Structures are given as C-alpha cells and as structure tokens.
Amino acid sequence: MAHIAVIGAGITGITTAFQLFQQGFEVTVIDRQRYAGMETSFANGGQLSASNAEVWTSWGTVLKGMKWMLRRDAPLLISPKPSWHKISWMAEFLANIPNYKSHTVQTAAMAIAARRVHQEMASAAGVDFDFSPAGILHFYETDKELEQAARVTALLAQGGLERKAVSPEELRAIEPALCGDYVGGYLTQSDATGDIHKYTFGLAAWLERKGVTFDYGAAVRAVRDTGTSVEIETNRTQRFDGVVVSAGVGSRALAGQLGDRVNVYPVKGYSITVQLNDAASRAAAPQVSLLDDNAKIVTSRLGPDRFRVAGTAEFSGDNRDIKADRIAPLTGWVERHFPGVSTEDVVPWAGLRPMMPSMMPRVGRGRSGRVFYNTGHGHLGWTLSAATAEIVATQVAGVYRRSSPVQIGGLKAS
Ligand SMILES: Cc1cc2nc3c(=O)[nH]c(=O)nc-3n(C[C@H](O)[C@H](O)[C@H](O)COP(=O)(O)OP(=O)(O)OC[C@H]3O[C@@H](n4cnc5c(N)ncnc54)[C@H](O)[C@@H]3O)c2cc1C
User: Fold this and answer.
1) What HEC string does the chain produce?
2) pLDDT tops 50 at residue 43
C-alpha cells in the first residue's frame, strides 16, 4: 500500500486525508500546529455557500477596490509596502478578468458538488459542527446592487445553482431579526453553514482513531522528490511514496522547493464571534445566514449562542495581527443591523485566505508524478474543499493503483 503524506491539517488537508484513507492509502498528515484547524480553518465566516461563488476577478471589483482604498474602514485594504509577490499576484489577478464568467460558473458547480461529500464525511465520522441548513440570504440597499445580483444569479444558474429573488416583505419574513430598509434580496435555500474548526478537528480526531498518522508540531523545513520517493524534513526526515500539499498560505514556498509555481497570496480577513450570553441577544440575532454584498460581510449562527460575522480583504503579506480598526466595522455592522444583540462579549480573529490570482484552487499533479496539490481555495475553502479533496484523492489513486478502497459505513471510494 502506498504511503502518502499530506502537508497541512486545515480543512483542505484533513478532507484530503479522509479521501485518501477511503481510497485505501496509508496516510500521514504533517502540520506545524499542535492541532488540526488552527490557522485559516479556525474562525471563518462559516458559510457553505455556492451562492458566494462569484470570483473577484472583474473590473467591477477593481473599481470598487480603488474607491475603497480611500476609506480606512473599507472592506479592502492594500498595504502600500511594495513586494514582488504582491505585484506579480495582482498582475495575474488582472490577467484573469477575461475568465470571470467561466470561473464563476465552475466555482458554483464545484460548490454544489462539495455538498454531498461534506455531509458524507461528517456523518461517517459522526462530527457535530453546528451545521445549519437554513440557507443563505443576500440582501441589498440599492436597485443598482440588486440589478448586479440578478446578473450574478444568471451566471450561478449556469453552474447549476438556483437562488430565489425575494421582495423586501419576503426578506423581512425570512429573517425578521434584520433591521434596515432593503430593496430586495436573493435566498439560496440549498446553502448551509457550520463551524469549520469543529468539523476539521472532529474529522482529524476520527481519522487518527482509524489509523491515520498525525505528525503535529512539525514544521516542514524541506521537501524534495528524490526520484524514487518524497523526502520531507521536519525535526526528522521521513520518506513517502507521494505527497499532497495542502498547506494554505504555506503552499507557495513548499511548491517552490518542488519546482512548481503555486502563486498563493495571503489575503487577510477578520471575524468576530459574538457570544450570545443572554436570552435577549439570542432572540435578536439572525437564524438565517446573511451576506451583505455591499459591505462584503458574511454571517453564520453557530448553534444557539454564537453569532459569527466575517469580512474584509487585506493585502499586507504574511501578517496575522488583529487590528482594532478592522474589527470595529464588524462590531459596528452587528450593532447597526441587530441593535438588540449585546456586543459586550466579542471574540476577534484574523486569518489568511490562501488565494490564487485566478481565484481557482490548484488541484492535481505537480511537475513530479509523486507530488499533488489541493490548495489555494481563497475565500471559499470551507465550501469547496470536500469536492477538491475527492478529485485529488481520485487522481492519486489513479497514479498509485491503490490496493483496495476502504469501506466506511455506507461510503465506498469511487
Ligand atoms: C475572515 C475569513 C472568512 C472566511 N469565510 C469563509 C466562508 O464563510 N466560507 C468559505 O467557504 N470559506 C471562507 N473562508 C476561506 C476558508 O476559511 C479558507 O479557504 C480555508 O480555511 C483554507 O483552508 P486550508 O486548509 O487551505 O488552509 P489552513 O486552514 O490555513 O491550513 C493550512 C495548514 O498548513 C499548515 N502549514 C503551512 N505551512 C506548513 C509547513 N511549512 N509545515 C507544516 N505545516 C504547514 C498550517 O499550520 C495549517 O494548519 C474565509 C476566510 C477568512 C480569512
């Protein structure tokens, strides 16, 4: 049986490990952290959102971004400090504008494909991750935004996603807790939410019980293809038959060592988790997941007593500092839209989205036949990871002619 290493124990690495295990491989997961899901897969927006599949590579986003650069509390911040990585990434981002439509359609289709796989893995492993199938509601304050949303809806439909236009009255009925005047919205009933950390951590713990090896607290210093195996150096050197790189924002450096270019940029985002400690706050917080397209804010109700609010895109390199002036707009947004929710107890967080300039994840083989990637999922890693994990594991199985797939409950490897 071939022995495959997975570098990274975030959502992409753990779902990859699950799929490889299911294919019958011996699997070792290596991560520099002490536990699974401690970096970007820790406190994200929580949305499993095919309805958020629109890629950012459009002139509309670029123009909006230029306007936002003048505002300190804007959803986008680009640090003026120049770096070759940032400049080359942005040039490639612009070069991808012609692919806006096709990439949006492909992303929507991938997000839909991921739903089944996510659910299958969670139920096989019995993971409780505060899953809520209550749908995702996009809402708009101006007719112009609503017209743009209609254009995006048509593109998402090409990817197979149905979302329903809702009137201001319907919007109020769907989420009575939301305050403000809106011209309308779109409801995607088939979208869902859940806690990415609980899912990742729970799946990893289950895999460990099943015999997958976890090498935590092990930063990969070097990785090389020797011609007959893959050699991975942490505080020791181990040899594997193959490797899948799922190292989030660390993937670019590792790919460089393996002779591949995977131009992931760390696009920072922030979240707050509002602790709904009293009954009045629990009643005043929304049940339905929301997406405010104008403010670029997403929300999820995680169980009865947590309300997650996430947003902002900051280009400031590999920097995880939690800045007060980026957290304040998120808290302010909660106070404006849900005045009955207490913001006395709010937990701030920042994470780095591993984003490709094309906005499409890098999935598949590298230059070497022993090296694979499942990384670069940007703003949608939680949504897409299950689908790409299944794709990459099937490719690995195709190369190594697996022994025999493992039967997990009702699941069987394809
Ligand atoms: C504010 C915010 C909100 C978001 N909201 C959503 C949302 O609502 N829905 C959605 O679908 N997506 C969302 N995302 C995106 C999603 O969270 C990410 O795409 C996803 O978590 C990335 O997972 P990953 O496994 O690729 O990376 P990570 O979770 O960062 O995992 C990578 C792992 O690799 C390890 N690693 C890296 N380098 C090395 C090395 N050299 N040696 C050993 N280990 C290494 C790290 O320790 C880490 O554990 C959001 C992101 C942010 C920041």
Assistant:
1) CCEEEEECCCHHHHHHHHHHHHCCCEEEEECCCCCCCCCCCCCCCCEECHHHCCCCCCHHHHHHHHHHCCCCCCCEEECCCCCHHHHHHHHHHHHCHHHHHHHHHHHHHHHHHHHHHHHHHHHHHCCCCCCECCCEEEEECCHHHHHHHHHHHHHHHHCCCCCEEECHHHHHHHCCCCCCCCCEEEEECCCEECCHHHHHHHHHHHHHHHCCEEECCCCCCEEEECCCCEEEECCCEEEECEEEECCHHHHHHHHHHCCCCCCCEEEEEEEEEEECCCHHHHHHCCCCEEEECCCCEEEEECCCCEEEEEEEEEECCCCCCCCHHHHHHHHHHHHHHCCCCCCCCEEEEEEEEEECCCCCCEEEECCCCCEEEEECEHHHHHHHHHHHHHHHHHHHHHHHCCCCCCCECCECCC
2) yes
